[in-house]
Amino acid sequence: MTTNQTASMLETLGFNTMGFETSLTNAAGLIGRITRQDRQRYTVITGLGTLRATLTTGQRFSRGKVLTPIVGDWVTLLEPSTSDGLHPIKSILPRRSQLSRRAAGDANQEQVLVANPDIVFVVSGLDQNFNVNRIERFLAVAWSCGLPAVLILSKADLCNDLDDRLIRVQSIVHGTPIYPVNMHDPKTLTGVLSHLSSGLCAALMGSSGVGKSTLLNQLLGSEHMATQPVRAFDDKGRHTTTHRELCLLPNDQGLVIDTPGMREAQIWFQEAPFQKRYGELFLTRDQCRFSDCRHLDDPGCAVRDDAMADPERRDLWQQYRRLMALKNTQ
Predict the structure, then answer these.
(1) I want to staple 313 with a disulfide (CB 3.0 to 4.6 A). Which of 125, 220, 266, 307 is the partner?
(2) The model's pTM
(3) Which residues neighbour 293 within 8 Å (Cβ) at sequence distance 6 or greater?
């Protein structure tokens, strides 16, 4: 493969969006992006093609802390040193972003789901899976990581009250694009595709059975991910995704990472992106009666009083209040 072909493949994978120095490709050795993880084995696409890699036992990264490579990571590889042909992972390049949630059972532990996504596609069914509170929490997982989100409402063909449900979700998205889609009609995916382009990566996220793998198959134009039919008695597809996998869309339209369904959305609250998301609420914070005002139900809170006087800001403040309450209880 020529130098130009190598550079073209790295660009397709999103290398040019990462802000790395161009000279890195010459100095760091073999560079690639992890597209799949199977325990301690990794599939990595490089400028030389698809390679199998492994994490050397005891290898440490990032200031002495063990940092496990995950799907979406950019890594440098060494030449195989054993007969199995696996390339040892030499290093993980700095992440520009990551999609995280609170680890199950541990309020103080972050679980990184996907590395270096540019946007999150939250998928929720318009069938019996539809739940506005759950949708809000999934969106908040993305917002708290500083990532833009798109809400994809699947199974629109099974919904008899679409307009009513759209009104309900409009009250919680606050600028997040919404796309009702019929997985059997590719034309309904046009709006979704408008958020992707060459090198940009979207992470799919949602509950089990909402149609994430079916959506990905439609975007790919092939039956890449295994799916099973919708059950007649509850409209749910039977969940089949058991791993995370990064896929390249045809015609260089971008990249999508499919993820296993999550039973519940546990938010990993990060102060800076969360405050940025709700920044417009806090313009009057200096007018609060107390300097340590939490801007929730505190007496003399100018932020609350100002928000309650404006219907749109009131909805935004009430959402902030709900999510802060969730932070204190989850």
Answers:
(1) 307
(2) 0.88
(3) 285, 300, 301, 303
Domains contained in the chain, CATH given: 3-92 (2.40.50.140), 98-258 (3.40.50.300), 278-329 (no CATH)
Cα 93 to Cα 73: distance, rounded to the nearest angstrom: 7
User: Residue 240 to residues 101, 226, 230: CA-CA distances in angstroms?
Assistant: 21, 6, 12
Pick from 125, 154, 127, 123: nearest CA to 139: 123
Determine the 3-state secondary structure of 235 from DSSP: coil
Cα(84)–Cα(58) distance, rounded to whole angstroms? Answer: 19
Taking the C-alpha atoms of residue 329 and residue 1, their distance in angstroms, rounded to an integer, is 54
Please count the residues of the chain: 330
Model pLDDT for residues 122-147, shown as the tens digit of each residue: 999 998 889 999 999 999 999 999 99
User: Helices (H), strands (E): how many in the chain?
Assistant: 9, 13
Helix ranges (DSSP H) in 104-144: 132-144
Report the pLDDT value the prediction gives residue 63, as an integer from 0 to 100. 47
- For residue 6, give Cα distances in angstroms to 48, 104, 218, 250: 6, 40, 28, 18
Burial of 319 (0-12, 13-18, 19+ CB in 10 A): buried
